[in-house]
Amino acid sequence: MPGMLPANEPQLASALSERLRHLGVRVTPQRLFVLEALAVRSGHLTAEEIMRWTARRSPAINLATVYRTLDRLVSLGLVTQTDLGGGAATFELVGDSPHHHLVCERCGIVTEVDDSLVAALRAQVLDRYGFRAQSRHMAIFGTCRACLEREHAVR
Known about the structure:
Elements: H1 10-22, H2 29-41, H3 47-55, H4 63-76, E1 79-83, E2 89-93, E3 99-104, E4 110-114, H5 115-129, E5 139-142, H6 145-154
Parallel strand pairs: 3-5
Antiparallel strand pairs: 1-2, 3-4
């Protein structure tokens, strides 16, 4: 039946509903489906991937609705949007521990980096420029250790 959650997810729906209510936001099926997709799949998803997940539960939801819902959830701070270099923005449910990403431009591997590393950068930006940076979800592009080691081995 469309809109039904798997048996192990009713608590998740309740928790996500509570997060929305806590922010003073109306709980809608669209918002819950998008949040659930991000929570259940637990990773960086494109809007199209979220759409495919939600469409299996509610065929009436379309891609425009998913994008509008994601925009709203990002503005509320419940979801982050990041460009990990794959040609499409990815979205992730905001967790208890903020993190950022190192993206290898050669092999595509994505490594999570704890926010404490970026916190030092934010402090320096504030000290030097008087600018309070809001680095909610950042991606740094470069070359991973394994690719660097392969490159050095070839030389």
